[in-house]
Amino acid sequence: MMTQLMETFQKLYGEGGEIRTYFAPGRVNLIGEHTDYNGGHVFPCALTLGTYGLVREREDRVLRFYSVNFERMGVVETSLDDLVPHKEASWTNYPKGVMWAFEKRGYHLDHGMDILIWGNIPNGSGLSSSASLEVLTGIILKDTFGFDQVSMVDVALIGQDSENNFNGCNCGIMDQFASAMGKKDHAIFLDTNTLKYEYAPVILKDAKIVITNSKVKHSLVDSAYNDRRQECETALHELQQAVEIQTLGDLTEEEFEMHKNAIKDPVRQKRAKHAVYENQRTIRAVEALKNNDVELFGKLMNASHKSLREDYEVSCEEIDILVDLAQAMPGVVGSRITGGGFGGCTVSIVKNDTVDEFIDSIGKAYQEKVGHEAEFYVVDIGDGARKLEQ
Ligand code: ADP
Ligand code: MG
Q1: Residue 179 confidence (pLDDT)
Q2: Which DSSP string corresponds to 115-134?
Q3: Ligand 1 in contact with 126 (CB < 6 A)?
Q4: What pLDDT was estimated at residue 124?
């Protein structure tokens, strides 16, 4: 693949000069959903799927972008003097946003680049192809301009800043953090309030992580996401009248039950309940994994889904079909929606000797019920973003 990308690069941009290559992974969140903007914990891991970048420096201020995945757009040419979002600039707003965020922090980019991108993560499916593109751009800039003082955590924060303030998506820190800081065969137990983190080995013994793509994305995603954030924020303010907390993540289940009536609206109460319980579930799930109790980990994944479906209400019919089918199957340790919701993917832990049957029978049943195919990825947990050896 790299040889082919190199050839495409030279065909598009001409030969000569040094072409460097980089990779940033997508991620899957094992548990801890919609907790990352509520001061709670998350437990994502980087995938071996991700986004590749080939880069050659230029002497002028021109930026040229090309993505093999957006072939139809051809080469998009712009310059370092135009680091503002344009609707028609489409996907290039992501790398440009990261450049903008570096400049904003005083990291001066004094010359342009030719960049070629290729990714093997499905876009818009909740596996964070956008975060991987941001983190990829971050490490390209860090390496190309020698910004050694920029840590990988900074790369994640800069990526989040660009997504929030350049691309207008109010995401938390989880996705960029996982892409930047991932570690092979480990998930990251991250406290999104303090950014303290710990790597936990994911030893599933006789089981694998299987991601199922529903191949639906309901238009509710963005508006509902902002609604949930708003609801949680209001619930937090109400709770703060009754108890001294900074975030919903500060509460245990018992404390929540004791003070929940401070939240006036029953719907808002359910949202906050999810945030509190999901955070505690995540803490417990990591503990279970450390104790080699994969079964308990799976049960907590199932409980996470129930809470996202009933209390947080971010699932949808297609996803529930996939999860119900999975949870009913012997050999499935646990299954839940992953990512923002309203479509996208599920993540399941499936016993090795059940994986083929899982793909076959859930694939068929889903096709029958929904009318289109699901896609399955049996994934490995990979390292975070890095420069590749030539
Ligand atoms: P997700 O992050 O869940 O995959 P998003 O909608 O947040 O979904 O991000 C998808 C967008 O990210 C794409 O529409 C595109 O603009 C950009 N993107 C992701 N991967 C690539 C790629 N390989 N080449 C160009 N743009 C990409
Ligand atoms: Mg995204």
Answers
A1: 98
A2: EEEEE-SPTTSSS-HHHHHH
A3: yes
A4: 85
Q: Which residues contact 317 (CB under 8 A, 6 or more apart)?
A: none
Q: Residues lining ligand 2 (ion), CB within 5 A? A: 130
Q: How far apart are CA 297 and CA 236, in angstroms?
A: 28
Our answer on whether the CB atom of 52 is closer than 6 Å to any ligand 1 atom is no
96, 123: one domain: yes
Strands 186-191 and 41-42: antiparallel
Are 12 and 129 part of one and the same domain? yes
State the CATH number of the domain containing residue 181. Answer: 3.30.230.10
- Tell whether 363 is in a known binding site: no
* Per-residue model confidence as pLDDT tens digits over 253-292: 999 999 999 999 999 999 999 999 999 999 999 999 999 9
* Number of independent structural domains in the chain: 2
Residue 71 assigned as binding residue:
no
385: closest CA among 92, 61, 27, 85? 27
Centroid of ligand 1 to alpha carbon of 230 (angstroms): 25
* pLDDT computed for residue 223 by the predictor: 83
Nearest to 228 by CA among 174, 267, 192: 267
Return the structure tokens found at 68: 């093999």
Inter-residue contact 128 to 122 (CB < 8 Å): no
- Answer whether 280 contacts ligand 1 (Cβ < 6 A): no
User: Is residue 140 located within the same domain as residue 80?
Assistant: yes
Mean pLDDT, rounded, for 178-194: 97
Domain span at 70: 2-201+383-388
Is the model's pTM score more than 0.90?
A: yes
Identify the band that residue 219 occupies on the pLDDT scale cut at 50, 70 and 90.
confident
Q: What is the pLDDT of residue 262?
A: 98
Residues 333 and 370 both lie in one domain: yes
Instruction: Note whether 249 and 339 are same-domain residues.
Output: yes
CA of 29 relative to ligand 1 center, distance in Å: 17
Same domain, residue pair 261 and 170: no
Q: What is the pLDDT of residues 222-256, one digit of tens each?
A: 788 889 999 999 999 999 999 999 999 999 999 99
User: Strand 62-67 relative to strand 113-119: parallel, antiparallel, unpaired?
Assistant: parallel
CA angle 223, 216, 374 (to 5 degrees): 155
CA distances, 384 to each of 48, 54, 138 (Å): 9, 17, 12
d(CA 82, CA 62): 10
